[in-house]
């Protein structure tokens, strides 16, 4: 038994985060594991945070850093919306995130994906990785789990998907990353943003596809005991 | 219209018993004594024109510009004290670049107008500052279309279809009201603005004048620029002809 778990280690979101545009809006997706070293501090965290009614951000890296940046940008955007008299654009939200990330690059360790919908540009995704770059992309992935998804997206991504196709792609991708990345896990959360508004979806473990030799999720140990082969390890 | 505010007009921080701030009103007089400046909003953009009264024959034509670009897609035409106007233009340019650096997009015209108006108003709040002696017509084209604003020395700013300040503003406003702006393109608007300025110019009181015009419209690719030379000449010729026809009656 490992009793040397450092529960005071900084909370990090190992994470897999994804942002994808589709024909009419965007889909943001993320896993839900927040770890403190090897200990899973929160297995059901919500890494997709609201900035305005129409713009959300996926957070990865240091939990504290990404929360503080989101909080500041939410505050600035709120003031901006009041002055402008209309909802802020996704571009403005992404730029504010970028300015904070870049100016404080020595102190922050957070990769963010800004996604939303506005009436001028429609659905847009902006990636703001570690150094504070700002890149507008049709889709982007981030977090430790994203390493396993580059090849997958090269093959599976296509322009002009429908809302359901895009969401299915995101859910499949996050679950693939969760299967391979130890720092990603838990449930899959998605947020769909379009002209009609925002929809949040939740995919618990038993709704996700299984990959390779993964076992079916068990609800109770008793199921194992009552199974035809009471010792599953004994093949 | 003239009234003396004896005793209550010494400072911009003093109200008169009937609720007026005389210093601001005097600043507006400075604007009324300058050459006419007009701006109109056509269906595809903005046209602004200035009646530049020439002080001396020795001045180089084209110098002493009264219309300035604030950023790529907006510009302002200034009436009144030229030096004050330069200060306001500098501030507007600075506000525009600052907005762009923070928000990552060009400043919406409405925001720019509010910031300019706030700045002008600021100088009416402290006794150690004097109000700006200029009126500004601000025209720009952003993602919400073409917009025209006017800022007065008091710091008031409104959005207009057509606006005029300076000597001939009353006559100019009457002429602008006759135009069907919502059906006019900027190309046609340039001709109309030239005609109006030539018309309201008082030959008796002021000798020579130079016409300066700018536009920001679909034809200029939503960029604020001087009206192209050939169109300007065409407009001047049309204006002179219209004047002659009027005189001939």
Automatic annotation (TrEMBL), chain A:
- Reaction catalysed by this enzyme: Cleavage of peptide bonds with very broad specificity
Which InterPro entries does the record cross-reference, listed alphabetically? Answer: Ntn_hydrolases_N, Pept_T1A_subB, Proteasome_bsu_CS, Proteasome_sua/b, Proteasome_suB-type
Q: Which SUPFAM superfamilies match?
A: N-terminal nucleophile aminohydrolases (Ntn hydrolases)
Any matching Pfam family: Proteasome
User: Does the keyword Protease feature in the UniProt annotation?
Assistant: yes
- Highest taxon, organism lineage: Eukaryota
Q: Which UniProt keywords are listed?
A: Cytoplasm, Hydrolase, Nucleus, Protease, Proteasome, Threonine protease
Q: Where in the cell is it found?
A: Cytoplasm; Nucleus
The role this protein plays is: Component of the proteasome, a multicatalytic proteinase complex which is characterized by its ability to cleave peptides with Arg, Phe, Tyr, Leu, and Glu adjacent to the leaving group at neutral or slightly basic pH. The proteasome has an ATP-dependent proteolytic activity. The proteasome is a multicatalytic proteinase complex which is characterized by its ability to cleave peptides with Arg, Phe, Tyr, Leu, and Glu adjacent to the leaving group at neutral or slightly basic pH. The proteasome has an ATP-dependent proteolytic activity.
- Quaternary assembly: Component of the proteasome complex.
Q: Which family does it belong to?
A: Belongs to the peptidase T1B family.
Q: What is this protein called?
A: Proteasome subunit beta
- Could you tell me which species this protein originates from? Hibiscus sabdariffa (roselle)
Tell me the organism's taxonomic lineage.
Eukaryota, Viridiplantae, Streptophyta, Embryophyta, Tracheophyta
From TrEMBL, chain B:
Q: Record's superkingdom?
A: Eukaryota
Against InterPro entries, the record matches this protein to: Ntn_hydrolases_N (IPR029055), Proteasome_alpha (IPR050115), Proteasome_alpha-type (IPR023332), Proteasome_asu_N (IPR000426), Proteasome_sua/b (IPR001353)
Q: What is its main location?
A: cytoplasm
The segment(s) forming the Proteasome alpha-type subunits domain are 8-30
**Localization annotation:** Cytoplasm; Nucleus
Record keywords? Cytoplasm, Nucleus, Proteasome
Q: What is the protein's quaternary organization?
A: The 20S proteasome core is composed of 28 subunits that are arranged in four stacked rings, resulting in a barrel-shaped structure. The two end rings are each formed by seven alpha subunits, and the two central rings are each formed by seven beta subunits.
Please state which protein family the record places this protein in. Answer: Belongs to the peptidase T1A family.
What is the purpose of this protein? The proteasome is a multicatalytic proteinase complex which is characterized by its ability to cleave peptides with Arg, Phe, Tyr, Leu, and Glu adjacent to the leaving group at neutral or slightly basic pH.
Protein name as catalogued: Proteasome subunit alpha type
Q: What is the lineage of its organism?
A: Eukaryota, Viridiplantae, Streptophyta, Embryophyta, Tracheophyta
